[in-house]
Amino acid sequence: MGDELTKQLESLKGILSVSADMPSTLPQEPVRGDLPVQLPFWPEPVRGGPNAVLRSSLFAGIHSKKRETIGNQTKPEKPLQAVTLASQDGITVKFAGRQLNQYDADVFFEALHRARHHPLETECLFTGYGFLKGIRRAPNDLGYEDLDDSLTRLRDGRVEVHWKMHGRGFKFVGSLVSSYVRDETTKLFKVTFAKEIKALFAPACWTQIEWEERMALRGHPLAQWLHSYYSTHADPFPVGSAFLCEKSGSKRPLMKNFRTDLKQALATLHRVLGWECELDKKSDNVTVVRTPSGAQARHLARAKAKKDSQAETQRVLEKQRRAAEAQERLKRGKGKLEHASEIIPSLFANKTFRT
Fewest CB atoms within 10 A around its CB: which of 20, 136, 187, 192? Predict the structure, then answer.
């Protein structure tokens, strides 16, 4: 008995000595605010693009030689004031700086693609050679110069975007590229995105762009803009050519000239991608039929299932309503019959019939 008690005491002393060496507080899991902020991760064959941007003229469907400076200059010593760009209803886009076009969109999408592996606000390093290959440009002096100019435009331009999704408001204010430098020694490009850009990639607010399709349209800026715009819609609805002229940032002063550009761009989409495109002469509406992405196909399937379920619920409710009305009519009819059965005998009371 005494030996057993001694062993228990020794065991207790060992436990207490180990406990004394342990930290007074257990390590805590990092709170959500301490976690690194990253872009959503999309597969290698696609590039992520914000819907609010793709449904506006921020990246105009124009050639680089038609690029302009956008903004109001009130005083020479003050920076440009942002102006509102054309965008789809429910989206407001303001911009000040050197105009961006589809080449800048290629650079922006590719830079985001590489930065998605890293926390935002950390430098993303890449070689100009690999980057230019990624956007299907020649890695020569002109290619490096164009890339440097584009990243500079993305860094220097001031963007403000407001949009709503499912009744909730979102906004982004800042530069599409937070910082950019090119190391003169290593020749590496260093790009940083601010964590605020994550807002552009909120759930249901961005689209996976098929990169090989987009690259196959290189050299056709309006076709590239149309590809991006229609890619944001799982089931595109017809829109007018005037709508596309405005939203694509076309420089054409006359609609008849833009329609010529539009017909050529739609023909390119059909020839290169197999999209079914039609510009109706009577209504002036453009109809596009394309194969939705995997995510969009699932969205359409869910929407159809929900619609079918709602329709079935309505049919059941309508059937129940009709059954209830029928019962009510039957009840009212039975009541009238019972009332008549009470009246008819009284009509013949105290009456004698002669035969």
Answer: 20
Say how far apart CA 212 and CA 135 lie, in whole Å.
Answer: 10
Q: What is the residue whose two structure tokens read 């429910």?
A: 90
Record the pTM.
0.75
Per-residue tokens: 104: 């800048």
At residue 72, φ and ψ (nearest 5 deg) are -105, 125
Pairing relation of β-strands 69-70 and 91-98? antiparallel
Give Cβ neighbours of residue 335 (< 8 Å, ≥ 6 apart).
none
> Please, which residues have CB within 8 angstroms of residue 201's CB and are 6 or more apart in sequence?
39, 40, 48, 50
What is the distance of C-alpha 313 from the center of its chain?
A: 31
Q: Assign residue 270 a region: left if phi > 0, alpha if psi is -120 to 50, beta otherwise?
A: alpha
Amino acid at 290: R
* Residues with pLDDT less than 70, the chain: 1-34, 293-312, 334-355
Domain regions of the chain by residue span: 41-219
Fold of 41-219: Arc Repressor Mutant, subunit A (1.10.10)
End-to-end CA distance of the chain: 123
Question: How far is 290 from 308, CA to CA, in rounded Å?
Answer: 23
DSSP 28: P
Using the 8-state DSSP alphabet, how is residue 81 labeled? B
pLDDT tens digits for range 8-26: 556 555 544 444 444 444 4
CA atoms within 13 A on the CB side of 330: 6
